[in-house]
């Protein structure tokens, strides 16, 4: 069975680096696998496309260009706001802040610069504009249950696994639901 079939539940081991660099950005090797349902936009589009012909036991390195990952950097996603909106926060350049978007979704911003009057923040995903290299191993593939296929969320397992259901935006026009068990509460 290959991943190409829609509504397959895939268990994946991965290590993520920026293309051409060696510093590990994220990895679940040695931990719980990332699980997702195909065709539900749980993972970035370029990675899901590249995994389509793989089967259990396959390993490989997959290059995902920025446009198929977290998108290009959008200059309009960089905003300058009055400093008083950040009252009580010990600001530092490069720090990540979390808040709530206009539709109640969680948003992540990076402080680019600040002074006594204003703060410049960047709503772009931290990996926007970057080509990514995934070293992957397909651990398991199974058909989604009827409920999983209908809801787009993985069922909880006997070992207390999580039920997903949150969603996050990759800031390039696609909203992706992280509706699955992502091993150790760690979603990508």
What would your notes on this structure say?
With 188 residues, this protein is mainly β. It has 2 domains: 8-70 and 128-178, Roll (Chitinase A, domain 3), CATH 3.10.50.40; 75-122, Thrombin, subunit H. The protein is built from 2 helices and 11 strands, in the order E-E-E-H-E-E-E-E-E-E-H-E-E. It has helices at residues 45-51, 146-151, and strands spanning 8-18, 24-27, 34-37, 59-64, 78-82, 96-100, 106-114, 118-122, 132-143, 166-169, 175-178. Strands 1, 2, 3, 4 and 9 form a 5-stranded antiparallel β-sheet that branches. It has a 4-stranded antiparallel β-sheet with strand order 5-8-7-6, with no helix packed on it. Strands 10-11 form a two-stranded antiparallel ribbon. The longest helix is centred in the N-terminal third of the chain and has 7 residues, at 45-51. The radius of gyration is 18 Å and the shape is elongated. The two termini are 24 Å apart. Residues 158-188 have low confidence and may be disordered.
Write a concise keyword list for the protein shown above.
188 residues, mainly beta, Chitinase A, domain 3, Thrombin, subunit H, four-stranded antiparallel sheet, 2 helices, disordered C terminus
Number of helices: 2
Count of strand segments: 11
Q: What is the 3D form?
A: elongated
Radius of gyration computed on alpha carbons: 18 Å
Beta-strand residue fraction: 35-45%
Share of helix among residues?
under 10%
What is the helix/strand order?
EEEHEEEEEEHEE
CATH fold title of the largest domain: Chitinase A, domain 3
Q: Write down the overall mean pLDDT.
A: 82
Taking pLDDT < 50 over at least 5 consecutive residues as the criterion, the unreliable ranges are: 158-188
| Highest CATH level, the class of the largest domain | Alpha Beta
Main sheet properties: 5 strands, antiparallel
Question: What structural class do helix, strand and pairing data support?
Answer: mainly beta
Distance between the termini: 24 Å
The CATH architecture name of the largest domain reads Roll
Domain count: the total is: 2
């Amino acid at each position: 069975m290959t991943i190409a079939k829609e509504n397959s539940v895939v268990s994946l081991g991965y290590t993520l680096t920026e293309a051409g660099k060696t510093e590990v950005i994220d990895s679940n090797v040695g931990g719980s696998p990332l699980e997702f349902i195909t065709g539900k936009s749980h993972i970035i589009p370029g990675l899901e496309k590249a995994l389509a012909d793989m089967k259990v036991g396959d390993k490989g390195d997959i290059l995902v260009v920025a446009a198929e990952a977290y998108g290009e950097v959008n200059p309009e996603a960089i905003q300058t706001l009055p400093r008083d909106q950040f009252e009580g926060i010990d600001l530092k350049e490069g720090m990540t802040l979390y808040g709530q978007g206009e539709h109640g979704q969680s948003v992540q911003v990076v402080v680019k610069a600040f002074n006594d009057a204003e703060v410049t923040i960047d709503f772009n995903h931290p990996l926007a504009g970057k080509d990514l290299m995934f070293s992957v191993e397909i651990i398991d593939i199974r058909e989604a249950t009827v409920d999983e296929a209908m809801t787009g969320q993985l069922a909880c397992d006997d070992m207390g696994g999580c039920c997903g259901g949150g969603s996050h935006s990759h800031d390039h026009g696609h909203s992706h639901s992280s509706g699955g068990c992502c091993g150790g509460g760690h979603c990508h």
